[in-house]
Amino acid sequence: MKMMDCKDVTRLMSERYERTLSLRERLSLKVHTAMCIGCTNYGRHMDVLRKAMARLREGKTSDER
Ligand SMILES: [Zn+2]
Asked: Pfam families in the record, alphabetically (predicted)?
């Protein structure tokens, strides 16, 4: 199995919101982020960003009740 580099990993991280990743892709992501702090942080950042965007789209903000 070919090892993914950081470029492949960050691309997959944004693609996983638009499509379902294959088992192999998900596994490669897991293996890579286990060794790479840069991509781990990138993934967390993406997650926070996506959630904030989703909240905005729903028309709710956290400080509004
Ligand atoms: Zn990486």
From this structure: zf-HC2 (PF13490)
8 class by beta-carbon count within 10 Å (0-12 exposed, 13-18 middle, 19+ buried): middle
Q: How many angstroms does the Cα of residue 39 sit away from the middle of ligand 1?
A: 4
Q: How far apart are CA 52 and CA 38, in angstroms?
A: 21
Q: Output the CA 29–ligand 1 centroid distance in Å.
A: 9
CA of 56 to the centre of ligand 1 (A): 29
The sign of the CA dihedral 23, 26, 32, 34 is negative
pLDDT one-digit tens code per residue, 15-31: 998 999 999 999 999 99
pLDDT recorded at residue 9: 96
